[in-house]
Design goal:
about 290 residues, mainly alpha, 13 helices
Length: about 290
């Protein structure tokens, strides 16, 4: 139960970071895409830096959740970021909570509940072998590199979708490193600081953050958000089962799990199509002019 609360708080913090960062990233010049200049421009914005503070808080809360439970439970729960984002946008303007697309929010929430019920993930932790880490990293990095290569060659909105998937896959690998690093805290901080996973976590997190800014800058929320929302839990469940031996239900339960993912996807699409998010997009565009 504690892990669930921590994961939900991490999702809320991610929502705050998303709202603040999205406004600034969409205002950045398109010519900055895939360049260090994009980050340099963003660093000049107090709003973007505030988003980074919220992102760090989410990171700490996520790490705390992963120290108790596995990827298959914690990472899907982070999908609550999207409903929290909608409520935050409606409240900040203020535009009124009545304008929040509640049917889509309910769809996503029900889908998340169905997915977790069908998966029924356990909280056991199995130390991954070196060979398992190598296979996981090669496959994940290869998939991310392939998505980036294709995204580089095409234009919006497909670029935004591919970068969204690449971003979430990178964050899933970051969470896998985090899962190991937080468990090593039981042996003392020296064990954590001398393990390669903590530094791999930092590197993967920074690269994923860079990809996130490019995804937000490359296309509309309708294209980016569903890709971000659905690919993270899928990649995280795969890594959790393969690396850490997390026990999730298979067989006939796969049908219910697929239904949960479908509801999450439909809910995220409905939220991404909301006029509230499009108004938020217009605010960012106005800041660019």
């Amino acid at each position: 139960m504690i892990a669930i609360v921590l994961a939900l708080l991490a999702g809320a913090s991610n929502a705050i970071a998303s709202v603040l960062q999205r406004r600034v990233a969409k205002a950045a010049p398109e010519s900055d895409a895939f360049k260090p200049a994009l980050i340099l421009d963003l660093l000049r914005s107090p709003m973007w830096l505030g988003g980074i503070v919220a992102l760090i808080a989410a990171f700490v809360l996520q790490a705390a959740a992963l120290s108790i439970a596995g990827l298959s439970l914690v990472q899907p729960l982070l999908a609550v970021e999207l409903p929290f984002t909608m409520i935050l946008i409606a409240w900040l303007a203020p535009r009124g909570l009545k304008r929040v697309p509640w049917p889509a929010v309910v769809l996503l929430t029900v889908g998340l509940a169905v997915l977790l019920f069908a998966l029924s993930p356990d909280e056991d932790y199995h130390l991954p072998s070196t060979s398992a880490w190598i296979v996981a990293m090669v496959c994940t990095v290869g998939a991310v590199a392939g998505l980036i290569a294709v995204a580089w060659a095409i234009h919006r909105p497909a670029r935004a979708v591919l970068l969204g998937i690449a971003t979430s896959t990178g964050f899933a690998l970051t969470a896998a490193f985090m899962n190991t690093a937080t468990r090593q805290l039981e042996d003392g901080i020296e064990t954590v600081l001398t393990s390669w996973q903590v530094y791999a976590m930092a590197l993967a997190g920074l690269i994923s953050l860079f990809l996130l800014q490019n995804a937000l800058q490359s296309g509309s929320l309708v294209a980016v958000q569903p890709a971000l929302t659905i690919s993270d839990p899928v990649a995280s469940i795969i890594l959790g089962v393969y690396l850490f031996g997390e026990d999730v239900r298979g067989g006939p339960w796969i049908i219910l799990e697929a239904a949960g993912l479908a509801l999450i996807l439909l809910g995220s699409i409905g939220i991404a199509r909301s006029p509230l998010l499009h108004e938020e997009h217009s605010v960012s565009q106005a800041q660019r002019v």
